[in-house]
Write a structure and sequence with these properties.
150 residues, elongated, mainly alpha
């Protein structure tokens, strides 16, 4: 729950920034000189990119959470079997062991979104965020019935 509040707070701060930057961009455009119009367009582009990025990430997180809820309802969420050190950090060898099992499971059933979801969790536990995200994107695509590239 804390993560949701943090995400919502960060999103609100970003939206506030986008509004401020957009307002400044419009002010620059209203000045009407070549220089201020150029700067105004540049200032307006950044909030547009930011809004798109925030929207895409929010959509991704929402879909991933829905898959997690479905998997939990089915009783298929991965069990936390990782060893941790005295500070609560995941033991690297333990994460590698679980990852190897999840990868084998996914190779045996490459069309099952559940396997890809669990593989994404294993990637995250192994601190490989880019691959975790790609695996989760594949799980989402498979669940939605969309074709996925290799």
């Amino acid at each position: 729950m804390r993560a949701k509040f943090t995400y919502a707070g960060t999103a609100l701060v970003l939206v506030f920034y986008f509004v401020l930057a957009g307002d400044r961009g419009v002010m620059l455009l209203q000045q009407g000189t070549a220089l201020t119009i150029t700067f105004g367009v540049a200032v307006l582009i950044l909030p547009l990119i930011g809004v798109w990025f925030l929207w895409a990430n929010t959509r991704f997180v929402t879909k991933a959470n829905r898959l997690g809820e479905l998997l939990e309802a089915e009783g298929g969420l991965p069990v936390d079997e990782l060893r941790r050190d005295q500070y609560g950090r995941i033991d690297r060898d333990s994460a590698d062991e679980v990852f190897a099992r999840r990868r084998a499971e996914t190779e045996d059933a490459p069309g099952d979104w559940r396997c890809w979801f669990r593989l994404a969790v294993a990637y995250r536990d192994a601190r490989d965020t880019p691959r975790a995200r790609k695996a989760m994107q594949r799980a989402i695509a498979l669940h939605e019935g969309r074709s996925v590239g290799v």
